[in-house]
What we know:
Blueprint: H1 7-25, E1 46-47, E2 54-58, E3 63-70, E4 77-81, E5 86-90, E6 93-94, E7 101-104, E8 111-116, E9 125-131, E10 137-146, E11 149-152, E12 157-161, E13 166-173, E14 182-186, E15 189-190, E16 199-204, E17 209-214, E18 223-229, E19 235-242, H2 268-286, H3 310-323
Parallel strand pairs: 2-10, 12-19
Antiparallel strand pairs: 1-3, 3-8, 4-5, 4-9, 5-6, 7-8, 9-10, 11-13, 13-17, 14-15, 14-18, 16-17, 18-19
Amino acid sequence: MWTTDYPGALKAICLVPLWLLLFLDCGMVGGEVPPHYWETPYSQPYFDNSSRREVTATVGQAALLHCRVRNLGDRAVSWIRKRDLHILTVGILTYTNDQRFQSLHSEGSDEWTLRISSPQPRDSGTYECQVSTEPKISQGFRLNVVVSRAKILGNAELFIKSGSDINLTCLAMQSPVPPSFIYWYKGKRVMNYSQRGGINVITERSTRTSKLLIAKATPADSGNYTCSPSSSDSASVVVHVINGEHPAAMQHGNSSASCLRPLSPTSVPFVLATWMSMTVAAVAWNCNFNGNWNYWSPDWRWHWDLNWNWSNLAAGLVGLWSWS
Length: 324
């Protein structure tokens, strides 16, 4: 039990930890401590590689490049366009006249985001997230700006028999993300919310497809139909609803094979074919060599054998039939 009789001993014991810390700090215990002894491996800024390094965006839709820097401290983060080494942003300040470029950052966050509003295909390329260490460190990001277009399957002009169904399928091509909506128009009228019975729109965002179904079409359903996804250029098709058959291709029940039709006896192709066939038949009837070279005269003229037989006549008739 401590008493007031030993104040000196109590002070000495209490000062021992303080003296030990002083010895360690001054390098008096165990030799001199290297300057980097107390540094951790992550005391310097470093990049968090969990961010996507390649981003695809569509024309007109904002593009975002996310750069995450740990242990930034008092260093600055800049965004550089690699193709011309142009400084776009430093911190949250924009250093370019193109105001489409903007740096987004929340206080206390490790994320520095380059936002490009209304990107164009010319904006495609490599962008660097750079930290002002010595030497500087940087991380590259690849941006691909594509033009997303809608496509309606089939021909640009369709002929539908009255009473049949109109079935149109639209695809959002080269869309990096599913469209938030796909609208169908007939002229300027939206078909998705049409009050007419028998109209059905089926949209699958995951597959970027939409189907427009119109049951028992009538001539009044003829017109220009347009598919317009939220993030893509639109596509159109002209639909004709007719009564009876039409020589052009129909949407349903068509055969890709064409039928051969007989030539008219008064047509030029028929007359030419007949003349050529008769000529071949005449040669077949009147030229009978019989394998005998004596029919070849020294004066390079043919000796015609006027004898003909039924086999030659049959050959001539076959030739006439094939040409006509």
